[in-house]
Specification:
By secondary structure, the protein is α+β, with helices and mostly antiparallel strands. The chain contains two helices and three strands. A hairpin with a 4-residue loop joins strand 2 (31-36) and strand 3. The mean pLDDT is 88.
Length: 75
């Protein structure tokens, strides 16, 4: 199984990760996603490299959108 880990230290990350929890629980076909609010991390696992890449792209895009929305706001 292939795995990727994303770790964050920004102030917005816990709120952004919390917003992504329902998506992680619902899952993607062939991909397992674990979100750790405690460590501000996302672990993405899949047998298929293409599925792993697609999931990473989705989560990174959602996190980027969250950052763009929260820029300029103090959380």
């Amino acid at each position: 199984m292939k795995k990727a880990y994303l770790a964050f230290s920004e102030n917005y990350s816990k709120n952004a990760l919390k917003a992504l929890e329902p998506e992680a629980k619902e899952g993607m076909n062939g991909v397992q996603v674990e979100i750790s609010l405690e460590n501000s991390e996302i672990e993405v696992s899949s047998e298929d490299t293409n599925d792993l890449r697609a999931a990473l792209n989705s989560y990174l895009r959602w996190l980027n959108i969250s950052k763009e929305i929260t820029d300029g706001y103090e959380l």
